[in-house]
Amino acid sequence: MTTKTKTAKKTTAKKPAAKAGAKATQKKTRKMALASPPPESVPTEPEPETQPAPTKAKGKTDKRMSALDAAAKVLTEAGEPMAAKALIDAMAAKGYWTSPGGKTPHATLYAAIIREINTKGAEARFKKTDRGQFIVLGPPVTELFKIADGTPGPKAVSDLFKI
User: Fold this and answer.
1) What is the pLDDT of residue 130?
2) Tens digit of pLDDT for each residue in 12-62?
3) Distance of alpha carbon 123 from alpha carbon 79, whole angstroms
4) In the chain, what are the domain boundaries?
5) Residue 64's pLDDT is what?
6) Which DSSP string corresponds to 45-113?
7) Assigned CATH for 67-142
């Protein structure tokens, strides 16, 4: 039994000494790392420039339509208020946009439309008409009747027909 206790005492005595040695080594490596110059000051050879991969012809973009753009297009074609879930179904049916695998794309679309209404205010493309129902707005009336040369237009309709 005495040999067992001696062995146990020896192993327990060696472990703290080993840990203390490891800590000292870590401190030394930290000090050495701090003392060494930063990597930017070490001269290196410039990397050879690589040519970018060839792209498609200019003017042709293969971008997917965003969910908000697709929703605006569907609402414009429908001409009546629609809910987010109906918008998602219509966008998928017409092939404008499909969910990349999300479980609740209608909730994401609803939140995106509300966010656009809140951030853009009067310039937003959408308007909430009823609970969960949205319509798309056209361009403001002032933009439809701008005069090309910048002069102010007639103040009354009768001014248009003066001879």
Assistant:
1) 93
2) 555 555 555 666 666 665 555 555 555 565 556 666 566 666 555 555 555
3) 19
4) 67-142
5) 82
6) PPPPP-PPPP-PPTT---PPPPHHHHHHHHHHHH-S-EEHHHHHHHHHHHTS---SS-S-HHHHHHHHH
7) 1.10.10
